[in-house]
Amino acid sequence: MIALDRVRRRYGMVTAIDDVSLTIAPGAFVALVGASGSGKSTLLRMINRLEEPDSGSVTIDGRDVTDQPAHRLRRRIGYVFQQHGLFPHMTVAANIAIGLTLAGRPVGDRVGEMLDLVELPRDVATRTPDALSGGQRQRVAIARALATAPPILLLDEALGALDPVTRDAVAGRLVDLHARLGLTTLLVTHDMAEALLTASRVLVMDEGRIVADATPAQLVAGQGGPVAEGLMAVPRHQAERLAALAR
Ligand SMILES: Nc1ncnc2c1ncn2[C@@H]1O[C@H](COP(=O)(O)OP(=O)(O)OP(=O)(O)O)[C@@H](O)[C@H]1O
C-alpha cells in the first residue's frame, strides 16, 4: 500500500501540494487528473523520491520512502514519462536491461520477454531509439520500467506525445499489463476520457489538493463535485457532438 500523510510541498510562493493525505491499495489503477499546475506530477514524483515533501510522509507498505537509498527504492517503482527518456546512444536491448545491469542482476532472456510483453518484435532489440516510431519508443520505455518486475508503476503523461490511435492501443496494453502483472499503477493524465477508461479510481487535483476521489462511474453520474464536472464537460460535450453527427 502507498500512503501519503499530510504531505506539503512548496516552490517559493507556490504551494504545489497542499496537505494531501491519501492511501492507494495494492493492485489499484489510479488516475490523477487536473488542470496544468494542479500538482499531479509533483505528487507522483514524491512516491519515487524525485521530489521530497517539505512536511508529511510518504510510505510504501508502512515503510517511509526515505528509509532506503533512492536507487534501491526506484528498483521497485517503474516510472515512465512523456519524453520516454531512453538513452539515445544505447540499443533498445541495453535500454531495457539497464535497471538489471545497474543492480548487477542477470539479464538472461529478459529483453526478449519484455519486448513480447509490450508487443514489439524481438528484432528491434538491436536498434537505437531513433530508429523507432514514437509509439514504439514509448513501448520500450514501458518495457524498461517493468524489466526489474517492480510492483508499482508510475506513468506521468506517458502517452501524451502519441497519436490518438497509438495512444488508445498503448493505453489498452497498459490496462492489460496492470491486471496480468498485478501492478499498482498511478497514471497522471490531462485527458479525463483516458482516466475514465483506464483507471478504477480517479483523483482530481486542484491547486495542490485532491478535490475528488471517485470511480469513473461516479464521475460519469456527475457525483465528483464542481472541479471534476468542469473536466468531465470535455468528454461529455465531445460524445454529444459525435452522437449529433450520427443523427
Ligand atoms: N521545480 C519547480 N520549481 C518551481 N516550481 C515548480 C517546480 N515544479 C513544479 N512547480 C510548480 O508547482 C506547481 C505544480 O506543478 P506540477 O508539475 O506538479 O503540476 P501538474 O499538475 O503536473 O502540471 P502539468 O499538467 O502542467 O504537468 C505548478 O505551479 C508548478 O509551476
From TrEMBL:
Family annotation (PROSITE patterns): ABC_TRANSPORTER_1, ABC_TRANSPORTER_2
Gene Ontology MF: a single term: ATP hydrolysis activity
Biological process (GO), any one: quaternary ammonium group transport
SUPFAM superfamilies per record: P-loop containing nucleoside triphosphate hydrolases
Annotated keywords: ATP-binding, Cell membrane, Ion transport, Iron, Iron transport, Membrane, Nucleotide-binding, Transport
Lineage top rank: taxon: Bacteria
Pfam family, one: ABC_tran
ABC transporter domain mapped to chain residues: 2-232
GO cellular component: membrane
Protein name, per record: ATP-binding cassette domain-containing protein
